[in-house]
Specification:
451 residues; five-stranded mixed beta sheet; globular; seven-stranded mixed beta sheet; 19 strands
Length: 451
């Protein structure tokens, strides 16, 4: 079925504009509460959020919906997305909710949902929620004596801090490291600096003064220039850049160079394979990960399992193939030994463990392979289906033949915007750029003709 509300990562949109209105948020609470209200026990939901101004509005609306459906609500306050996933399991909740639009600007917000196992909901359950949202749910409301209660439990974020700290190997401390961390004025502004300091590091922070509208604003993993400057300024050994809900991370080395998720996955895969921790003989990553990563793993007899874009698809592949490392080039790193979703802080701790054990500079440790030249361009599509055009399909076939075994072509519609993404990579940058430009022109001409 065509989905009206859910995208690749929950429900997302501009605050106070459909679908991110308090009315829909309340209805989501009723619908989800109805689906997960199974058994005779007292049902509970945990709700976390990032630091967006609209979080207060959506949080209260969801509390109304869940309590109306008869569930008790535990309000966690600002906490990273992986913290919500962890506490959903730890508190034996029936459902977990994270109110966040991740790396988007403050005007946007979103609703991410986790099942009692801490994993994001399946497509099937999301479709059931969509069906209920289109119905009259007044018959699903709890009796007056069964209405749920709500309470704020801010102290439970320290459970997440302790869980994150325990992922650092016991023989490692961060003593002697000067770490600059950018929390994007988001959900990790309290927990991440606290965890690093408690593990022994000297911590320099930026992006830790949220005011409701500055989340991801010229800071965090999507805008690393501020952290690059801070690393130089304080002569830090390493910089850690999180996004608004702290489920992704990028690293800045001591020279100020940005290290992306592909390099980080290579570091962790190498380290875990050497320690006998890596499961499944490889890792999972999306179709956007660089060909250089795939070749690097192949040289070490490790396999790269490619998935659709989206960390939920990475997690599905990991569960299917028995893998415990996966992620995205953007910095979502999923380590299933420690959690059920991307966790920027935990991934950073694994990199820090390698840095401490090897006693080398971050620039030396995190440059595992030379990335293959990769070019990505977007074509805006107002209407029609240009990828079904015979001329476009022939152009794609010709491009694939040109790249042959020396590169890779990926063309896909965006899951969040009316765009077609054209990406090619290969050893010859000039060839890659020419192929992408030609395909963009062909797709664009079909779009123009349709308009």
């Amino acid at each position: 079925m065509k989905r009206k509300y859910f995208g690749t990562d929950g429900i997302r949109g501009q605050s106070n504009i459909f679908p991110m209105t308090p009315d829909l948020a309340m209805r989501v609470g009723i619908a989800v509460g109805t689906i997960f209200r199974n058994g005779a026990h007292r049902h509970r939901v945990v709700i976390g959020k990032d630091t967006r101004l609209s979080g207060y509005m959506l949080e209260n609306a969801m509390v109304a919906g869940f309590t109306a459906a008869g569930l008790d609500v535990f309000l966690l306050g600002p906490i990273p997305t992986p913290g919500v996933a962890m506490l959903t399991r730890s508190l034996r909740a029936d459902i977990g909710v994270m109110i966040s639009a991740s790396h988007n600007p403050f005007r946007d917000n979103g609703i991410k949902l986790f099942g009692p196992d801490g994993y994001k909901l399946s497509d099937d359950i999301e479709e059931k929620i969509e069906e209920l949202l289109e119905q009259d749910m007044s018959g699903q409301l709890a009796k007056p004596e069964d209405i749920g209660r709500a309470k704020r439990v801010d102290g439970d974020i320290y459970r997440y801090i302790e869980q994150a700290k325990r992922t650092l190997p016991r023989d490692v401390t961060l003593t002697g490291l000067r770490i600059a961390i950018d929390c994007a004025n988001g959900a990790a502004y309290k927990v991440a600096p606290s965890a690093l300091w408690e593990l022994g590091a000297e911590v320099v922070t930026i992006g830790t003064e949220p005011n409701g509208v500055n989340i991801n604003l010229e800071c965090g993993s999507t805008h690393p220039a501020a952290l690059q400057k801070k690393v130089h300024e304080v002569r830090a050994d390493i910089g850690i850049a999180l996004d608004g809900d702290a489920d992704r991370v990028l690293i800045i080395d001591e020279e100020g160079t940005v290290i992306d998720g592909d390099q980080l996955m290579a570091v962790i895969a190498d380290s875990w394979a050497a320690d006998g921790m890596l499961k499944g003989g490889g890792i999972a990553a999306t179709v956007m990960s660089n060909l250089g990563l795939e070749r690097y793993l192949q040289a070490r007899r490790l396999k790269l399992h490619r998935t659709k874009v989206g960390d939920r698809y990475v997690v599905e592949q990991m569960r299917q193939d028995g893998l415990n490392v996966g992620g995205e080039q953007s910095g979502h790193i999923v380590l299933s030994d420690f959690g059920t979703t991307g966790d920027g802080l935990v991934a950073a701790l694994q990199i820090l463990a390698v840095v401490k054990r090897q006693g080398k500079a971050v620039s030396e440790i995190c440059r595992r392979f030379e990335p293959v030249p990769q070019v990505l361009k977007n074509v805006r599509v107002a209407a029609g289906k240009p990828l079904e055009d015979a001329g476009v399909q022939q152009a794609i076939a010709d491009a694939e033949a040109q790249l042959a075994k020396n590169g890779r072509l990926l063309i896909r519609p965006s899951g969040t915007e009316p765009l077609i993404r054209v990406m090619a990579e290969g050893d010859d940058r000039g060839q890659v750029e020419r192929i992408v430009d030609e395909l963009v022109n062909v797709i664009g001409s079909v779009r123009s003709a349709a308009a």
